Amino acid sequence: MIKKIEHTAIIVKNLEESIKFYEDILNFKLRTAGSNDSRKMAFLYVEDNPQVEIELIEELTDVGQLADGVVDHLAFAIENMAESMEELKAKGIEFLTEEPKLTIFGDKMILFRGINGELLQLIEK
Hints:
Number of strands: 8
Order of helices and strands: EHEEEEHEEE
Radius of gyration: 15 Å
Structural class: alpha/beta
Largest sheet: 4 strands, mixed
CATH architecture of the largest domain: Roll
Helix content: 10-25%
């Protein structure tokens, strides 16, 4: 049946600015981008795990409120919380808390917002 999660789609306000954010701040790589009459899209991946993608979508027409199936957050596995936080702070990221918290499984995690207000999470694994 299901083999893996293929990608997670995020509705963005400006595709070009969002690509730049994910590339420059979070070190994603652009795989492909395209458009049609109603939307622009881009697929990005992490170099060390290229089989997992995020899809960025900029709607070019008014589609109303996109409330169905809202994704709560996108989590990224990292190796070292302190180093990752320091690197992201140097790139202008402001975290929602001063210090990481523990997940219910005991892993360190911290939250921040992406360029479109999307909730992003780092989890030290």
